[in-house]
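seq/struct pair 1
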Amino acid sequence: MAWAAYWAGGGVESNRRGVFTSEQTLARDRALERYQPQFDGLRALAVLTVMVDHFSADVPNFPLPDWIRLGATGVRLFLVLSGYFITASLRRARDRMDAGELSAGKTMAAFYWRRLLRIGPAYFVFAAIALLLNLGAIRYYWPWVFTGTVDWLIALNNEWPLAISHLWSICVQEQFYLLWPLLILLLPRRWVLSAIIAVAFAGIAFRIGCVIFSAPIIARWVLPFGSLDSLAAGAALGWWGGRLRASRGGWLLALICLSMLTVAAVLRNSDPTKLKSVLVEPLEAGAFVILVARTATGFDGNIARFLSNAGLVFAGRISYGLYIYHILVAMVFNRWMPSQMRFLITIPSLRLLVFGIATLFTAALSWRFLEQPINRLRGEKTRKALGPIPHGSWEQEGATRSQRPPRLILSADSSG
């Protein structure tokens, strides 16, 4: 428990004090929103838990007891991070709009263009390879894949289609991105935080309705309404700009977070038809909001060294590719691994190692030769559309690390 000493406590810093029009306020916003490599560490942990969960799904109590559902928890962290980064990016764009530097039309067009160029390339490459190799059910369900509605397919069929079921969370985020800029950029500023909170409660209300009307458990999980509270929890933090400072009260806050995650794990393994089961997602989201707020300030000591480890940071930067390709890699090995070498994928520990290394290699290739070049392209297109971009603005996060001004904040684009 020694690591808990580094957790946050004591208070929350908010950089929301009105429209950023003065040089002093802009400088403060810039200083607070620098690149934080520890966020890449968090992304890596989120995607690695999902990969471990999927690669060991058929092995009881491996590598952890079955009641600890790593995949579900990792997805929840991803959703909170996504809501946080996207809303923080849109908030900075909104600040420029309110200062008269940008129009709503140009801002929204740039946003959608960037989302398409960030999510689309690896997504469609995965789909094309899966179609070519005839993996799973993709040839039967390809229209759902190419329209970004796999989550609705799963809910309607009440089953997980092979090869494409993991795309549900990407589709949920795509649908979230379609509507979220309308709220953040067009709603009167004084109503935005209240609207975000209302969206969070709508997500909880949706799951309560599912329990009352005995909706399928899968639909509760994969439909976008069931993720609204997690996305909105991160979004509220991103809009508010809150950060947690280190203090001696960090012990208590760490204990609260661990307790929330433990209770969530217990409830996830209880009867899902009971109303208490709807608390799983809010408990996890609440714990992860605290974690994200503390990471925004930056941990110290051992936790900082761990989250900033070069290997973990690199895995975080390619986390989108790790998530997109990991099922593809597993299915290719399962189909074409020679019989003399099948022990590599039948022994659980070896399978984790082989699948993990192969997925890392695939995602790294995708990052180097597909995603990075397109990231540079979308950065150039944004600058042409919106003109000069101030340091720390959301439009800059597509630049490569060498192109960026030093220590700018990462956007959700780094993970997709």
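seq/struct pair 2
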Amino acid sequence: MPRDLPLGNGSLLVAFDQNYHIRDLYWPHVGQENHALGHPFRTGVWVDGQFRWFDDGKWQRSLKYQPETLVSDVRLEHPDLKVVIHSADMVDFHEDLFIRRMEICNLDTREREIRLFFHHDFHIAGNDIGDTAYYEPERRSIFHYKDKYWFMMNGAVATTEGEPGPGWSPAQDNYAGLVTGIHQWACGLKEIHNLQGTWRDAEDGQLEGGVVAHGSVDSTIAFNLQFKAGQMRILYYWMVIGSNFEGVTTLNRMVRQRGPQSFIDRTAAFWRLWLEVHLPEVDGLPQSVIDQYKRSLLTIRTQIDEGGAVIAANDSDISSDVRDTYSYMWSRDGALVAHALNKAGYLDLPRAFFNFCDKVHSREGYLLHKYNPDGSLASSWLPWAVDGEKHLPIQEDETSLVLWALWEHFSRYGDVSFIKPLYRSLICPLADFIAGFRDKGSGLPVPSYDLWEERLGILSWTVAATWGGLTAAAHFAEAFGETERAQNYQKAAAEIKASAETHLWQPALNRFARMVNTKEDGSWDVDGTIDASLVGLWQFGMYQPDDPKILSTMQAIREQLWVKTIVGGVARYTNDHYHQVSQDISNVPGNPWFICTLWLAEWYALTAKHPGDLKQSMELLEWVAAHAMPSGILAEQVDPFTDQPVSVSPLTWSHAAYVITVLTYLQRKKHLRA
């Protein structure tokens, strides 16, 4: 199930599913630890003896964001309950604080009591062993804790009354009159002895008031509100997170003193400012593309840890398939996301990423498969032995693209003081490794695993990334006055390109091959499958986008990988089995991926010779915006028939590709008008 609304600040990440239930809650790192682990934190309504959780099928839901912010704009209406709820949820931009503001409207023509229930299914630190939940009467709140992880839940009801009237929308003013404290509570056991949890206790509208539970526990709290006919009232709920009791109670006191609305207002203002200071000239772009560009930048920010780790995706539902997640830092994804942020004008986040890579790379100069947000080595399926012999379990492009992205950063900003300490500790070790990690006969990189993590070989993508990394390293060496080192890197890059011309270019296909490998007899095994990742040959500079060899290769991608259904989009490669839904390969070579479609759009923009030629690129940018979720979130891929998101959502790389393509389009448009 996709994550329609991720909200975060670089240390706390809260993600809602399509039912408007919290499903993932990460702290103190984005992607680590997950204290929800995919278990729903339910929200429900009781009125007139009827109870409905938000996943009830009759709720009419609209899950979006307030424009240019990381504050939600959610509307729910239930015809049986005659209730409308308009919500704004946010994670404070500075404090580890999550606040929900709910405007509840009684659509009935009579007075009624409406009760709101909030359920907490914590699995603190990723498991349900040794948790404690308790009610604390002095603050009229619920606490959950284990070790260094503390969570405090509280809320307040506004005493100011209101009526919705025509065009009702969330009020923006602060409500001074607040009555703080929960009205009902229950702490209990779950997932043992056939106990489902306190959320079941809520369904009669009355919680039994259990004050403490330990082990595998959950809790539910409630607020009872009295309504006149047609009246609207406001409820605030908040969760504060910290490492000890003092930390969470201090922050709770701050919320009570300042008022929860002040945190919502300042967070909305911060994210608008964050976008505004680097917003490019977007006049002439369709509004859908402008909105998607802004949403992509904000979504990227939610997926980056303050320590520099760029997380691929934080959607724990994928773990049901492979018992693992995407909540890791692949340096390939990180480098491309950093490149997007560099192009968009953001320096601090890419710098943190490069410093992260500086800390985690091996002594030999390579980056391993993936890393946890705290810098520790993450899980991996890449083997250390192939055919009984030791083999490095790496994807070489992950090392090379860090160098490529770092040079792109430096050439744009010229921040010498930032680069200086990285030259010896990061740039030279990585460049020396990839310069030496080559076949002595052909000069091509030694076989490593591909970017899709499916095959071992010499991939065109990896070859191009290695060329880009070595060329970047040569520029750095020359800039630092090390001419001989620069020449060595340039020589290695030239040998790689010459060998690519010989072995990867296939005249019979009139395009490049996806992958080659050497056989025992010294001959070459060619994998001629058409693969969208062939775009790396021009993306990292080894070829110009309008080189004749690239033109024919890109034409093959467009013709053979376009999904011929009502959905459209570009697949990864022919007969892609990952989440495959159709065997009609001629029409559906694979599910459409956003990054692959955007690669084609980027190429269209770069090869445009006249302003009118940009139309093809814009059509694909609009296609992506149209196939995003209503909130603007981009998944990894979509179903070729239903257009529903497939695999993880959001995928950080998808949003980075959108940012890169929009900026490339704008740059090319400006160039053609000059």
